[in-house]
Every structure is written in structure tokens, then in C-alpha cells.
Design a protein that fits this description.
By secondary structure, the chain is an alpha/beta fold. The chain has a domain of 248 residues: 3-Layer(aba) Sandwich (Rossmann fold). 36% of the residues lie in helices and 14% in strands. The protein is built from 14 helices and 11 strands. The strands form 2 sheets. The chain has a 9-stranded mixed beta sheet, with helices on both faces. Helix 4 crosses helix 5 and helix 7 packs across helix 9. It is globular and about 65 Å long. The relative contact order is 0.18.
């Protein structure tokens, strides 16, 4: 999951194919017995009426001329299928070889809070689109999830966020954070209306089945990335008989981890990535700290930050601007997550010597992601005392980085949120196809333990891993082999 990701037409796909014969781990995993529920009925939806797609706003290029667009009306609250409706924006790119067409491939790019129709609008983009072989075999279907993008984008009073403490240091600040998060949530309800309370993953999964029905398909294949994997898991629980294939790239933890486990998994990932950087530094002459123990250097930086003696570096030496431990953890999370070893080591050297430049990363989350995450996960923390205890245990598990800043942003963003988490839906009866889960071993946004739990949540699943640092394997470039593995799985005969 990447709550700060912004998708542009040339980067929206970031999807990578991988041959199953490559040396990566693909392990069949079982799932313990689960309770079953009757498969919920999809609301009656009329056949979809495709039309011309809207032009893009500059500086983005216009969609492919082959793309078609439409809207599907779905219940605003799925517990009231005959109640008020909301519109979901849908795009399609039809299979280029109808004689060899497999069916429909629906996708979601995650975020949460990212519009997904671009997956179809720019399906043939030579940089960020699908391979020609995939375009031949599938009708590509993308959609903007409810409350996102062209599906009635949610509106909140974001001026409130400026006053929310990024890292509460005492009980007063923690309570202020909870109070202001509550006001932000209430502003979303006031400015968006009831839709703000129904942007959870289960509702989106039900919308997907309404789209399936509207386009007249008996079943779909689905490719989810990052938070899109959570939506795919929800769809599989609700509509197992309507899935032909399910590929989950950079997978969320489906088991609804509490704040501590979520934060611990992400923080250990960052700590291990720092150790990976230290190992690189021992061998590569490009390391600005070659010959130094990088983890020891980082421990010293934290000690200086705690003592109030760490200063921001400048071109001629340390400046007067202090750097605290939270700022250092934020820096490490995002500098290591980018995985440019030479640049990360150079910036650590600048912090260590006081001379040079450091690129800082802003903390925080956005209301669109909070509207989704705080309904799908239960990250509630009782009070500041519990928060401090969690932080201490997490820092012990990840001593060289203390915490994963992106994960902590998410956890803190849900404190005081006035729309409570939804329960995980019961699993409906029906057979699922074998599922493919793919993940990097060092993924700060969707750590490997969560992907392992995702694979274990299905009766038949293969877990494909790549020993790399990064998020979103399905893309051209360094993880292109993963793209081939996923494409091979999706196009293989089923049944």
C-alpha cells in the first residue's frame, strides 16, 4: 500500500511480468477451514452503455482512442440495495484479438485513494501499459473506486490537517490528534455526504460485481496492486464463483492486524533494508561511508538526535536547524524505500559529518486514504500510554530505524476517526481458482509477512517473491520478470 502515491498516465501501470521458471520462491500454501456465508446477491443493474471517454486535463495525454467509458449506478449503501445510488466511472479497452479473447481482466492500482480507470484508458501505453500479448487476450476494465477520482470524488476540510500533531509526544498532543482526526472525518461526511461512510473495501468489491453484471460477463480475472490486493481478497470472499483468476501484486495483510503488528511488520522491513544497505556499503566503492559500520553510524545519529545535538547539514558544515529522532526515522523510511544505495549512503554521510545535503520527506496521510483504511482496518489505540508502549516494543524490534514512518502515518491517521471499522465479511460458498500472490522481500508499504498471510488465506495459492527493495512488482524495468510470471498465470488455461 502506498498512501502517498499519485498515478500519472506514464507511470500508472508499474506492472511487471515474470516467468514461473525463474529462480524465485513459489510455494503452494493451504488455508485452514473457514466459516461460510451465503453468497450475497448483486443488485440489479442495467446493461452498461459504452461511450466516448473524456479528454485528459493538461499536461496529461489524452486516453487511447480505443478506450471506451461509462458509468454504473450502484447502491450507496450495499445493505440497502434499493436505496440511493452512487455512480462508478468505468473504462474498457477491448481485446485486440477477439478470436483468442479469454475474457475480462479487471484491475485496481490501490492507494487507497487512487483512480483506477487509467489502467484501461492507457492500456496500450508503451511505457506504463500492458504487453501486446495481454492486450490481445483480455478486455481491460479499469474503474475509479467509489468516492475517488471521476466516481464522485470525496471532499473534506483539509485545512484541519495542518493543525494535527504529526508525532504526538505527550497525552495532550495524542488527544488533540484524536480530536482533530474526528473533526476531519466529520467534515468528510458533511462535505461529501453519506458516501464518505461507505468507501470501504467490501463496498468496492460489491461494486466490482455490479460492473461484472453490467458488462454481461459470468466471471472475471482480477489483477490488484498494493491496496488493490485487499479489494481482490474481499471480492474472493464475497463472490468466489465469479472469479476465473486472481493475481495480487504487493499484497496487503488480509487478517486485519492491529496497530502494533502492522507497525512492527513494516518497521522490521525498514530495519532489514538498512542492513542490506550496510552490506552493499561494505563491498561497493560508491558508498560515501565505505569502511564504516552503517548501522552503528545510524545508531549514533539517533543518539545525537535524542540529545538535541544533531543538526541539518549544510554546504559548509552543520546548520543551526535541529533534527529530532522522528525526522530521522521519517528520512530513513523513505530514503531506504526508494532504494538508491549510493544516494542514501551519501545523505547519511552528510548527516554524520554535517556537510552536504539531505532530501526530507513530508509525513502524514490524506483524507481519501483515511476514509478507506480506517474502515477496513482496526488500528485504534486506547490512549497515549498504550501508544508509548507500542512505540517502545516496535523500536526494540527495529532498533536501527525505530519505526516505519509510512505505517505510523496510517496508524495515527485512524486515531479518533469517527467512522468505525467494518467487520470482515464472512466467506461465501464456492470454489476459488488457484491464486497468485507476488511480493518483494523488502517492501516498506506491503511487507512480506502480510503477503504470506494473504497467500495462506486461500485454499490454493502460490507466493512468488523477488529479493529486491521496492513496491509494486508488475512493471517494466528491474522487476520485469515478475510481470512475465503474472501474465503467464493470467493467460494460462483455467479449470
Amino acid at each position: 500500500m502506498n498512501t502517498s502515491m499519485r498515478v500519472t498516465p506514464n507511470t500508472r501501470r508499474r506492472i511487471v511480468s515474470v516467468l514461473l521458471a525463474l529462480s524465485a520462491s513459489a510455494t503452494a500454501l493451504g488455508v485452514p477451514g473457514a466459516a461460510f456465508a451465503q453468497e450475497p446477491a448483486t443488485a440489479s443493474v442495467p446493461p452498461i452503455r459504452w461511450g466516448t471517454c473524456p479528454k485528459a486535463e493538461p499536461p496529461y495525454p489524452d486516453p487511447s482512442p480505443k478506450a471506451q467509458c461509462a458509468t454504473v449506478k450502484v447502491p450507496l449503501d450495499w445493505s440497502k440495495p434499493k436505496g440511493p445510488k452512487t455512480a462508478v466511472f468505468v473504462a474498457r479497452y477491448r481485446a485486440t484479438d477477439p478470436a483468442r479473447r479469454i475474457g475480462v481482466l479487471m484491475s485496481n492500482p490501490g492507494g487507497p485513494g487512487v483512480a483506477g480507470a487509467d489502467d484501461a484508458l492507457y492500456a496500450d501505453d508503451p511505457i506504463g501499459g500492458y504487453s501486446p500479448a495481454m492486450l490481445q487476450r483480455f478486455d481491460m476494465i479499469g474503474f475509479d473506486p467509489r468516492g475517488i477520482g471521476r466516481s464522485q470524488s470525496a471532499d473534506c476540510d483539509e485545512t484541519i490537517t495542518d493543525s494535527i500533531p504529526a508525532r504526538p509526544h505527550n497525552a495532550t498532543e495524542f488527544e488533540r490528534l484524536r480530536t482533530l482526526n474526528g473533526r476531519l472525518a466529520d467534515s468528510c461526511l458533511k462535505q461529501t455526504g453519506p458516501l464518505a461512510a461507505h468507501m470501504d473495501g467490501e463496498s468496492v468489491a460489491r461494486d466490482m460485481d455490479a460492473i461484472r453484471a453490467a458488462i454481461g460477463e459470468r466471471e472475471i480475472s482480477f489483477l490488484g496492486h498494493s491496496y488493490g490486493t485487499f479489494i481482490g481478497e474481499r471480492y474472493a470472499r464475497l463472490f468466489p464463483g465469479n472469479l476465473r483468476a486472481l493475481a495480487l501484486d504487493s499484497a496487503m495483510d488480509p487478517d486485519r492486524p492491529n496497530a502494533e503488528r502492522y507497525l512492527t511488520d513494516g518497521s522490521i522491513t525498514i530495519d532489514n533494508t538498512l542492513k542490506r544497505l550496510a552490506a552493499w556499503c561494505e563491498k561497493d566503492t560508491a558508498c560515501a561511508l565505505k569502511g564504516r559500520d552503517l548501522t552503528a553510524v545510524t545508531d549514533t545519529l539517533f543518539a545525537r538526535a535524542d540529545a538535541g545535538t544533531l543538526r541539518e547539514p549544510g554546504p559548509h558544515g552543520p546548520t543551526r536547524t535541529k533534527i529530532d529522532a522522528d525526522e530521522l526515522s521519517d528520512f530513513l523510511t523513505f530514503a531506504l524505500g526508494k532504494w538508491n544505495p549510493a544516494e542514501a549512503a551519501q545523505q547519511l554521510a552528510a548527516l554524520h559529518t554535517g556537510k552536504g545535503e539531505v532530501r526530507w520527506f513530508s509525513s502524514g496521510t490524506d483524507p481519501a486514504s483515511q476514509l478507506v483504511l480506517c474502515r477496513d482496518y482496526d488500528f485504534r489505540i486506547r490512549d497515549y500510554a498504550q501508544y508509548r508502549a507500542i512505540r517502545k516494543r516496535v523500536a526494540k524490534a527495529a532498533p536501527h530505524v525505530r519505526y516505519n514512518a509510512q505505517a505510523l502515518n496510517t496508524v495515527l491517521g485512524c486515531q479518533g476517526w469517527t467512522m468505525p471499522p467494518k467487520p470482515r465479511p464472512a466467506r461465501a460458498k464456492g470454489d476459488l481458482p488457484p491464486v497468485l500472490v507476488a511480493n518483494a522481500t523488502h517492501d516498506l508499504a506491503t511487507p512480506l509477512p502480510g503477503a504470506q498471510r494473504m497467500a495462506r488465506s486461500f485454499p490454493q495459492a502460490s507466493l512468488f517473491t523477488m529479493d529486491v527493495v521496492g513496491h509494486w512488482l508488475y512493471r517494466r524495468g528491474g522487476t520485469e520478470s515478475a510481470m512475465r510470471v503474472i501474465d503467464t498465470y493470467l493467460t494460462a488455461p483455467k479449470g
